[in-house]
C-alpha cells in the first residue's frame, strides 16, 4: 500500500523550512533498536568512534599477513562512490556509483541481491533489525529487507542524499543536500522531525546521550535533541564542516576545511581544543571522520587542495592526537590526499590516501605494519569496515575489496639439536610469529607427542634420521607448521695417514695428509706430548731434531671420534756429521798405512783409494799400496740415524 507521511518540523537551525514529506511504504521486516554487532553502520557505532572493540582476530602481531581474499566488481561507471561497507550476519552491504546497493557474501564476495535506485549511491548503509537504510543521489532515503533486498519504504527529500544513515532507537537520521537534517521513523519512513536550513550537509550525524551532532557547509556544528530535534547548541568551525562528527568521552570531534580538528564539550558546545592548521602543504582540509580509541583520536588530511576548486596536490597525513588535550602524538605521511576515515581495532589503525595503497599502523606508535602491496587507488571518501579478521573497503575502481589474514604463523625453533649428533636425547624450544588461537601440537617421527608448553625434551632416540614438527593455528584460523630434521649417528669414523715424512728425515718440516671414509669428518691431531687439537686434512709442522710421534683421529659431525688413533713415528736430524782422519804421509813399499777416523756422531765410513769408487771402510782403516809414488785416499761418513753425508777428508800418501 502507499501512505503519505506529513510532519511538522521542529524548530532547529533558524527558521523552519518546508520539507518534502512523501514516504512509500511496503511490507517487510521491521527494525528494532540498534545493537553493536559486526560492523552495522558507518564507523561501526552510532557515536561514530570507528573502533571495533569486538574484533579479536587482527592485531599488531598478524596484520602484516593481510592478503587479498576477494574483490567484487559493482558495475562502476567511473564516477566512484563514497559509500562505506557494513557487515552484518556474514553479509556485506555497500552502495555503488551505478545507482545500486549490493548485498554480498562476506566470505567470498558473491552477490546475494542488488537493489537499483535512480542515481548514484554515495551513502553508507546502516543495517539494523533486518533492514538496510541508505540514501541515494535520486533525493531518496530507502529501507530494504536485508535478506532479499525488497523495498520496505522510501522517503523523498529535496536533494541528493549521500550522507551515511544513522539508526538508533527506531529513528533513521540522515542528511540531504537540500540543507536539512532528517529524523525518520525507521518502521515506515514517516518524518519524525527535521532541522531548519543548515546549508549543505554532506555527512551524517553522530549520536550519544540523546543528542545527535551534525556539521554543515555553513562552518557550523549543530547539536540536536535526538528525540525532538530541538537545538541544544551550535558551535562555529573555521571552515566548511564536511567531516562526520564523532562523540567519545563527552567530547565531540569534527574536522573542517580550515585544516583543523576541533573538540567540543558534548553537553555545552564549549571549545575544548583545536589543532593548529595541519599538514605540510597548504591549503589543507580535514574531511575524514575522526576515529577514537584508547585515548587517541585519529584523522586524515587532504593537503594542497583549495576547497571547491578541484585542484590537487598528492599529499596527506594520518594524525594521532591525545583525545583529551589535542596534543599531537604521532603522524604518518600518506602519498596522496586523504578523506578516508580511519578505522581502529585491537591496537591497529587502518587508513589510505585517495591513491596509492591501503595501510595499517600501530595505533599507539604510528609504525607502519602493512600495506596492500600495489598501486591501489583507494578513491573512497568514506571508510572501511573491520569484522572478524577482515578489512573491507570500496575502491575507486568499482570493486569492493576484502583483505584478510591468510598467512599462517611461522614457527621458529629457538633451540634444537645439531643436524647430526651422537646423543640419544634432544631438546627443543620454539615460538610463533603471531598470536595464536590455542596451543601447539607436536609430532616426533610422525607420531604425536604432548607439548603443552613451547619446549620439549626427548629421550631414548635410536640411531638414524629423526624429524620433529610443531603446528599452531593463528587467530584467523591459518595453521602453520615448523619442522626440524636431524640424525643420531653413533658410528665413529675411521682415519688413516696417506702422506708422512721419511722415517729418518733431514728436514725440520713434516707434512701429513689424513683421510677418512666419512667425507664429513674433521680431524684431531697430537704431536709428541702436546695436547690434542683440531687439525686439517693436510697439515705441515716445523720441528726440532730428534724423535717424533704424530697421532690423528677423525671426528664426524655427530661428535663420534675414532677410538684408536693412527700413529706415525720418525726422526729428524738436520746436522751433517763432522769427520777427521789422521794417518802417515809416507811409508816404505810393502808397509801398511793405518788411518784413524773420528766423527762428531756415529757414522758409517766410506773411502776411495786412488780415485776408485767409495766403499765401506772399517775404522781404523789399513791401506798397503802395491806401487811406489804418490797415492790419494778420501774418507766421508754417513750419519747412521738419518743418512746424512759428512764432510770429505782427503789425504796423500807417498810410497818409497
Brief summary:
This protein is 0% helix and 46% strand. With 656 residues, it is mainly beta. It contains no helices and 60 strands.
CATH C-level class of the largest domain: Mainly Beta
Form type: rod-shaped
The portion of residues forming beta strands comes to over 45%
- Unreliable sequence segments: 1-36
Q: What gap, in angstroms, lies between the N and C termini?
A: 165 Å
Strand order of the largest sheet: 1-2-11-10-9-8
Figure out the total of helices: 0
Q: Please state the CA-atom Rg, rounded to the nearest Å.
A: 48 Å
Indicate the CATH architecture of the largest domain.
Answer: 8 Propeller
Main sheet specs: 6 strands, antiparallel
Look at the helices and sheets and give the structural class. Answer: mainly beta
Total count of domains:
4
Helical amount: under 10%
DSSP strand count: 60
The CATH homologous superfamily of the largest domain corresponds to: Quinoprotein alcohol dehydrogenase-like superfamily
Q: What's the pLDDT, averaged over the residues?
A: 89
According to CATH, the fold-level topology of the largest domain is Methanol Dehydrogenase, Chain A
How is the secondary structure organized here?
Layout: E1 3-4, E2 22-25, E3 66-73, E4 86-88, E5 91-95, E6 100-105, E7 111-116, E8 126-128, E9 131-135, E10 140-145, E11 151-156, E12 166-168, E13 171-175, E14 181-185, E15 191-194, E16 206-208, E17 211-216, E18 220-225, E19 231-236, E20 246-248, E21 251-255, E22 261-265, E23 271-274, E24 284-285, E25 291-293, E26 296-300, E27 302-303, E28 316-322, E29 328-334, E30 343-345, E31 348-352, E32 358-362, E33 368-371, E34 385-387, E35 390-394, E36 399-405, E37 411-415, E38 420-421, E39 426-432, E40 441-444, E41 447-449, E42 455-458, E43 464-473, E44 479-488, E45 496-499, E46 504-505, E47 509-515, E48 522-527, E49 533-535, E50 538-542, E51 546-555, E52 566-572, E53 579-582, E54 586-587, E55 593-599, E56 603-609, E57 615-616, E58 621-623, E59 629-639, E60 649-655
Parallel strand pairs: 38-44, 46-52, 54-60
Antiparallel strand pairs: 1-2, 2-11, 3-36, 4-5, 5-6, 6-7, 8-9, 9-10, 10-11, 12-13, 13-14, 14-15, 16-17, 17-18, 18-19, 20-21, 21-22, 22-23, 24-27, 25-26, 26-28, 28-29, 30-31, 31-32, 32-33, 34-35, 35-36, 37-39, 39-42, 40-41, 40-43, 43-44, 45-47, 47-50, 48-49, 48-51, 51-52, 53-55, 55-58, 56-57, ...
